[in-house]
Amino acid sequence: MEILNFEFQAGETANKSITVGCVGSGDLEILLQPNTAGIAKIQVTTSVDGSSARWKNLFERVFSVQVPPAVNIQINDFGATPGVVRLRLEQAFEEVKHG
């Protein structure tokens, strides 16, 4: 297991906590909690060692087209593909915005 940490500039503070996905399904879950610091803090716990560059690139791509809300994000990964990660992030952000 590897634990990775990232920070990105963020927009508005989220107004609620969200959980999407499920580690038991064999891919990943994302937990979001509001963060008032104006940044998005991300902690990834992954079963895939040596994947820091892949995660960093994925977050940079996602956040180049949308500003994340100010949240603490915890991702529990069990080898999910980048497409699944992006889908789960977008689901979580949509839930934060529109509930």
UniProtKB/TrEMBL annotation:
Keyword list, A-Z: Cytoplasm, Phosphoprotein
The record's account of how the chain is modified after translation: Covalently binds the prosthetic group of malonate decarboxylase.
Entry GO MF terms: acyl carrier activity
UniProt entry tagged with the keyword Repeat: no
O-(phosphoribosyl dephospho-coenzyme A)serine: modified positions: S25
Subcellular location as annotated: Cytoplasm
Domain of life: Bacteria
GO CC field: cytoplasm
Family: Belongs to the MdcC family.
NCBIfam families tied to this protein: malonate_delta, PRK01220.1
Biological function: Subunit of malonate decarboxylase, it is an acyl carrier protein to which acetyl and malonyl thioester residues are bound via a 2'-(5''-phosphoribosyl)-3'-dephospho-CoA prosthetic group and turn over during the catalytic mechanism.
The protein, known as: Malonate decarboxylase acyl carrier protein
Native source species: Acinetobacter stercoris
